[in-house]
Request: fold
Amino acid sequence: MSTPESKDYVLKPYKSLAKLKASNRIQTSKEFLDEPAPDVVFEGRSFCFTGVFVYGEGDRGQCEAAVRARGGYCYERPNRDLNYLVVGSFAEPAWAHQTYGRKIENALELKLAGASCKIISEEHWTKF
Reply:
C-alpha cells in the first residue's frame, strides 16, 4: 500500500479582472464629495472604503492597512459612527448605479439623519 500524498492549498485573495483592466474603468462621480474637503485625521477615526483604488495597486486591504498604521480603524459598511467614507478613483463594476453605489447612498442617508460622516475622494485621502 502506498501512503496517501498530502496536498497543500494556498488561498490567494480574490481580485476581479474587471478591476485590473484599465479599459473597463469608469471615473467615480465627484458630486457626493464634501466641499470643501475636510482635513483628514487618522488617529482614533473610522474609515470605510468603496470603489476601485489606485493606491496599493487597487488592493483595498492595503488602504485599510495604511489607516490602521496611522491609528485609525476600518468598517466594512457605513454606520452612524463612521468618520470618513473614502471613494476610490474608479467605479466598482457591481455598483447599483454607474458612478456610485450603496455605500455612498448609505453615507448620504446617515448624513441626512445627523451623522458626521465625511465623504472624501481617494486623491484627498492620499494627501494626508
Q: What stands out?
A: Strands lie at 46-50, 73-74, 84-87, 118-121. Residues 12-20 have pLDDT under 50 and may be disordered.
